[in-house]
């Protein structure tokens, strides 16, 4: 188990608990009418469920 508080340059709004074997990545979502994309840490859980956690990308 790992508690993710930062993934590369991405900082989720709250820590995310990730188990061994789970896959994580960052996705950009741009809702209609928004100029800035909303970024999310995506986690594919071992049971197949997909979870999304909002946060900020710092460069």
- Return the average pLDDT rounded to an integer: 90
Low-confidence stretches: none
Largest sheet: number of strands, sense, barrel closure: 4 strands, antiparallel
Shape: globular
User: Which strand order does the major sheet show?
Assistant: 2-6-5-4
Radius of gyration: 12 Å
Order of helices and strands: EEEEEE
Distance between the ends: 27 Å
Structural class: mainly beta
Question: With helices defined by DSSP (H or I, 4 residues minimum), what is the helix count?
Answer: 0
Strand content: over 45%
Number of strands: 6
Percent helix among the residues? under 10%
Q: Mind sketching the topology for me?
A:
Elements: E1 2-4, E2 10-12, E3 16-18, E4 23-29, E5 38-44, E6 50-57
Antiparallel strand pairs: 1-3, 2-6, 4-5, 5-6
What tags apply to this protein structure?
single chain; 59 residues; mainly beta; four-stranded antiparallel beta sheet; two-stranded antiparallel sheet; 6 strands; 53% strand
What does this structure look like?
The protein has 59 residues and is an all-beta fold. Helices cover 0% and strands 53% of the residues. It has no helices and six strands. It has strands at 2-4, 10-12, 16-18, 23-29, 38-44, 50-57. The strands form two sheets. The protein has a four-stranded antiparallel sheet with strand order 2-6-5-4, with no helix packed on it. The chain has a two-stranded antiparallel sheet with strand order 1-3. A hairpin with a 5-residue loop joins strand 5 and strand 6 (50-57). It starts with a strand and ends with a strand. The mean pLDDT is 90.
